[in-house]
C-alpha cells in the first residue's frame, strides 16, 4: 500500500487518547501506514498502552505479520486479561494460522467474558466447522442468531455450513435472509444461485443470475456464474476482475477457510516438486504462479536461490509477504507475467489450485514452457472433470471453477513442448461435505520446445 499521508503530516499536538482515536479512524479507512505510525508513537510514550498494542496487532496481522500480531495481543492481554474483544481478535489470528486449539481457547475466553456478544459465537462456529465438529458449529451459529437475529455474516456462514451438510433447502433460507438484510451481499447472492444448482433447480438458478446481471450488468461475479449455470458464453478463462473480486474479498480469512476445507494442494505440489527436483539445495529460480497467501512459499524455499510469487490479489500478496519466504512478490496476471519473462528465466514453475480458473490451457502452458529453461519443471493442480469430457476438454462448473479432462491437459502440455507428463489423481480438499478430486501434474520441458 502506498503512503497517502506522510509521517510529517500527522498531528503531533495530541493526547494519547486523542491520537488513538485518530489512528483508529485512519485504520478504518485503510490508511495503515499512518495508523501504524500513530500507534507506535503512542507506544513509544506509553509502552504498556493495551489498546494501542491491540490495534497495532490488528494492523500487523493485516500486513501478514501474524506472529508479531500475536505477541502484541498477548502483551495487551497481560495488561488487561478481561478485554473480551482482544481475546476475540487473538482467536481470529490463531484460526487464520491453523492453530485451532489455541483459537478455540481464545474464543471461549471471549464468550465467557461477553456472553451477550454474538461476534465470538459466530467465530466459534467458523472454528468448529474447521474442526469438522459440524453440530457444534451449527449450535454456535444459531446461538449467535438468538443474540442478533439480523447478523448478516452468521446467516451466510450458517447457509454455507448447511449446504455442506447437504441440507440445501435450509441453506437457501439463510442465503435469502442474508440478501434480505443486505441486498448486495456478494457471497450470499453467489451461493443462493449455486444452491439452486445443487438442488437441480437449474432454470431457477439461471433466472436468478440473469436478474442479477440485469440489475448489475458490470458485475463480474454475476456474469461468470450465469455462464457457469447455463453453459452459454463460457469464457476460456475467468476474467481478471472476477478472480480479483473473489480473492480480495476474503484474503483475511482465506487460510482459515482452507483449513475448514482440509486443503491439500500445497502439500501435494511439494511432494511432486521433491520427486522432480530431488533434495532442496536452494539452487533453482522458482516461480510460485498464483501464490495467494503464500502457503506454498515455505515448502518451495528450500529449492530456491530466488523465489518469486505472483498473484492478481493485492490483499493476498500482503498476507504472503508476512510469511517471509519470498524474495519478490508481484501483482500480475499469470499468463502475461510468463509471456513477459525472458526465455529460460525459471527452473521451476509451480501453480497450486490456480489453473482451476482457466479453461483453455494451451496459452498458459506455452507461456510456461517459454519461461522455463531446458529441463525445467512445471508442477500444478487442476480439478478433474467428473463425467465424460466436453469437446473442449474443460467445463465451467456451477462453483465458478473449471474442471479438466486428463487427456486434454496432457495434450496441451505436450503441444507446448513438455515431455510426457506425470499425472496423479488426488483429493485437493472437501467441499459440500464431499471430496474434490484433482489432478496433480509434473511436466519437464523437452530439449526442443515448440
Describe the structure concisely for a colleague.
The protein has 450 residues and is of the alpha/beta class.
Describe the fold and architecture.
- The two termini are 40 Å apart.
- It is built from 21 helices and nine strands.
- Among the domains are: 81 residues, Tetratricopeptide repeat domain (Serine Threonine Protein Phosphatase 5, Tetratricopeptide repeat, Alpha Horseshoe), CATH 1.25.40; 191 residues, Rossmann fold (3-Layer(aba) Sandwich).
- Helix 1 packs antiparallel against helix 2, helix 3 runs antiparallel to helix 4 and helix 5 packs parallel to helix 7.
- Helix content is 54%, strand content 14%.
- Strands 1, 2, 3, 4, 5, 6, 7, 8 and 9 form a nine-stranded mixed beta sheet that branches.
- Strand 1, helix 17 and strand 2 form a beta-alpha-beta unit.
- With 450 residues, the chain is α/β, with parallel strands linked by helices.
